[in-house]
Amino acid sequence: MRISNWNVAGAIVAGIIFGLMPWPLAAQTGGGPVASPPARSATGPATSTAAQQLNPTAPPTTADSPEARMAAMQEAMQRELQQQRAGNQAMLQEARQRLEALQAQTQATSATAGAAVPAASGVATAMWFRFENVPVDTILEEVSRHFGIITLKTVPMPARITVTVQNQVTADEAVQLLNNILFSQGYGLIESATSGPNPQRVLRIAPITEVKKANIPVYNSADPNTIKFTDNIITQIIPLKTLSAVRLRNDMLSLFSADADVTANAESNCIIITDTSAKIHKIVEVISTLDKVATDRPTPAPAAPVGSGRGSPGVRPGEIPYVMSMVVDGAAMQFRQGDILGEVFCSKADIATPAGGILAKVSVKEGQSVKAGQVLAEFDGSAARAEMQAAEARLQMARAKIPAGAAGPGEMERAKAEVVAEEAAVSLCRQKLDALQIKSPLDGSVTTMDFSAGQYVPAGTVLTQVVGTGDLKLSFRLAFNDRTRLKVGQKITFAVGDKIPAFPAEITYISPTTDSSNRTEIRARFTGPTGVLIPGVLGTVAIPEL
């Protein structure tokens, strides 16, 4: 084969160029990593140290030989790999340090803003009280878990509550919040503790009526500033300096809540009341103000003799009379010693639930006028309706079993007896359905309604009170000596101010008994228009014959 001169020349030139190419460029063209060329000898071509290390028996090679270049490339790759490993170790160490710092920061943050702050004993000293649309049972469980409190309950608490507190709360604050939540459901807390070297706090959930009779706190003070404004059930003993406790209790009956238990002790001249601390706070404010007014009066008014003038309310010997003021329809009036104090009242009905359940609907609002028989609220009746449908189906089947023609001995009687039994079952189911509808027993107005749809209501809970407004009556008390000169049908008048004409009435009832102050209750009905009168209005009663 003939080789042209041009091919030979090209090969020679290529070899010269490749031999003269700088080492980094040659390495790059070969696709390997960039590395410094092996050192050259001062007297001639340098030998490859890497090649001799790999194979000491091999003859020395020049730096420009392929073996030298390959050894240099391997050495450079090893150095780069070591540098990468060292860099990776440094990066890994730095990442570990950052992770440890982040974990330490997270633990410090959780200690101050977490769900609970643990104490040395393992029981939390504080917790976040933030719950949104959760059952009351869930809140009870969380409080019990955080603070190690034992909670006892006999009925489920499925009502859902939303409560948010901006700061963490202590165990005492959490118990107070629990009491507020339970009070809205008609329940309260009875607190006790276990026996032993390490007693635990025990909270028992019970209806308000039971809480009042339990071992609740008892306080003795007439200073409203010492009474906390909470929903805790307490018993307060209110000593009076000047006023008669028995008389003041009777005069203030309209101010006490429907759930309050109030009594008066004549010997110690104290009023004893069991109710929520907030409601007692209001009552003590009124009582302390009245008692202070009577104490500060320098010269007491003389007591009117029994039976004289317009009558006597039966003042006890040594009692200092007090003055009471009020405004009716813009007219101010005062009640002084010797006045017969009367109060307008009407029929009232506490609307209680015959059975417990979840409210499906609340149809009235506070202050709304209602008619007798109007539905105020309804319980969930899905189960009762299903039971009703099943009973009606059984009744139809029982009726179908009655033979149309001739029947054997006793067959007709058995079929009719089955029908009677199924009819009774349907009637019972219908009564259950009717009981799920809470209706008003009279015409009047709804006072309060603190319940809403979806809320669980225990059996016997008072949902609201309906106050009749169509038939107003009058109640007052007289000393026993004056009572003997009264009779049913006797005409009297009731005045609520000088600017308003007196309202005529006639006596309809005279109590056969007297109270501890030797006074008798008298009731009367109004014989004319009642105008501005509403239940609870106080006024003076005039009896012409006295």
CATH superfamily of one domain, by name, is: Efflux pump adaptor protein, beta barrel domain
Return the structural class: alpha+beta
Helical amount: 25-40%
Distance from N terminus to C terminus (CA atoms, Å) equals 161 Å
State the name of the first-level CATH class of one domain: Mainly Beta
Largest sheet, in brief, is:
6 strands, antiparallel, barrel
Counting DSSP E segments of at least 2 residues, the number of strands comes to 27
Q: Could you tell me the radius of gyration in angstroms?
A: 47 Å
Name the overall outline: flat
Low-confidence regions: 1-58, 106-115, 298-333
State the CATH topology of one domain.
Answer: Elongation Factor Tu (Ef-tu), domain 3
In spatial order, strands of the major sheet run 14-23-26-25-24-27
Strand content: 25-35%
Mean of pLDDT? 74
Short description:
The protein has twelve helices and 27 strands. It is an alpha+beta fold and 546 residues long.
Keywords:
Elongation Factor Tu (Ef-tu), domain 3; 27 strands; Ribosomal Protein S8, Chain: A, domain 1; disordered N terminus; four-stranded mixed β-sheet; single chain; flat; 12 helices; alpha+beta; six-stranded antiparallel β-barrel; 546 residues
Description:
Among the domains are: 30-85, no CATH class; 124-213, Ribosomal Protein S8, Chain: A, domain 1 (2-Layer Sandwich), CATH 3.30.1370.120; 308-346 and 471-546, Efflux pump adaptor protein, beta barrel domain (Elongation Factor Tu (Ef-tu), domain 3); 356-454, no CATH class. It has twelve helices and 27 strands. It has helices at 5-20, 23-29, 49-54, 66-113, 136-147, 171-183, 208-213, 245-251, 277-296, 382-400, 411-435, 480-483, and strands at residues 116-118, 124-127, 130-135, 150-152, 160-164, 187-193, 201-207, 218-220, 233-239, 261-265, 270-276, 324-328, 331-335, 341-345, 348-352, 357-362, 369-370, 375-379, 437-439, 444-446, 456-457, 462-467, 473-479, 491-495, 503-510, 519-526, 538-542. Strands 14-23-26-25-24-27 form a six-stranded antiparallel beta barrel. A hairpin with a 4-residue loop joins strand 10 and strand 11 (270-276). Helix 5 (136-147) runs antiparallel to helix 6 (171-183) and helix 10 (382-400) runs antiparallel to helix 11. It is flat and about 145 Å long. The model is unreliable at 1-58, 106-115 and 298-333 (pLDDT under 50).
